[in-house]
Task: structure prediction
Amino acid sequence: MRPIEIRDVSLIYETPAGNVPGVQSVSFQIAASEFVCIVGPSGCGKSTLLNIIAGFLTPTVGEIRIDGKAVTGQGQDRGVVFQDFAQLFPWRTALGNVAFGLEMQGMEKNRRETIAMEQLGLVKLEKFAQSYPHHLSGGMQQRVAIARALAYNPAVLLMDEPFAALDALTRDDMQRLLADVWRKTRKTVIYVTHNVAEAVYLADRVVVMTPHPGTVKTEVLIRLPRPRDPLSVEFLDYQRQLLQHLGQHAAAG
Amino acid sequence: MTMVSIVSPISNGYSTGPEKIGSRWRAFARTAFPFLVVGGIWEIVAHLGIFPQRLFPTLEDVAITFVQLTISGILPHHVIETLIRLFCGFALAGTMGILIGIAMGQSRRAEDIFLPLVSIGAPIPGLAYAPLFLLWFGLGNLSTILLVAFVSVFPVIINTWTGGKAVREIWVRSAKAMGSDDRQLFRYVILPGTLPYILTGLRLGLAQAWRILVAVEMLAAVPWGLGWLIFGAREFLNTDVMLAAIVVIGGIGLALEKFVFKRLEDYTVVRWGMMVS
Result:
């Protein structure tokens, strides 16, 4: 596992109305195997930042370094999970989807399917290896997407509100499952969400962002033992603390 | 089969439970009913003798002619010649149409070049080009096949192009994030992502090809072919032959639809949930 450094990253959107800063002077570091959540209201640039790290957007200023090496464009050192269930390829089975990254590397069929099967086991979907995505529920599809992003063993897993479109009960299950996957794989994770409880449940550290322009307001370390109890007093204290950071801004803005 | 509980209601016709067989018969009866009504009216009119028998044959006569022509090998010969022309022309149209359509979907320049031509060419009835093609390529097979290809290429181009535009951005992003290069992106994402539209285009193209082919066989003085069979029968007032040939044309069209396209779709885009059967 390798550390990640976000160095003074800014991105300015050029619009007909003039230049709009998407994110401005964002800097923070992520240790190897750390689980970092980025929370903030919509428009705070958290997804933009994630897209920069993923290589879909190029920052106007600044750079992203993984293990000291500046990244440009997309690459297999990062795995990405999106919010949209449609991210899976409908013409491939769950197994075929998970094996995709390895297939792109040119790995031969038996090996890549063995690895893909292990990854499906990690998200408890071995039984559905031969199912096509449209036969899977939203939660299952997102689990396949997680397995798919992990299959080629990237240094970091980037997740953009992966459970936001799920119902509340499924979302709780998925958070438990993700915490479990993280415990087993010790991947570095950068997880974007607007859900404060989700951030407290999952993260080692929460980066709070505020909009206009999108900047990092503060960082909060979550010092709670795992598995975490969302109804404990400490958990609710952290939630309150984060909401205050976000709420203060809303009151002022 | 743990999957059964979550299988979407799209799939049908695969399970063979008793209730399914019953509903199949009902569906068959529903389809057959209008034909029986029209056939019955036809029989009444034909037997009443309102029109001369030569011009308005009974269905028995048509059936007898059909059997005779089939046994003598004349009808199969016509059918085979027509099908060969159809497949040559359509194969050409399919290949060119998919290539051009995908190029238009992927490259702005290809789109700028082809779109105006396609927009103008597509709505012109194919038969309007027939005399031109006959002058250019002579009477016979070559002009027939080229005209079939030319006419049926338009729906293939248009649908493939539309499909290329409809490939979801998130598939492309996912594939790139997983390390696809451009060639892999094309082969493993753009092509399967466009397939529902390509199949629609091919199906429409084949319908076009079928229509223009029968018509142009009447003009191109080819010695064999269903279109020519119908046209030739006019001289001897052989309306029974005409009707037999028309039935065969309808039957072949239906068979291509059911046994080629339906199967192809069921096996690909329907199985993938990208199209409802």
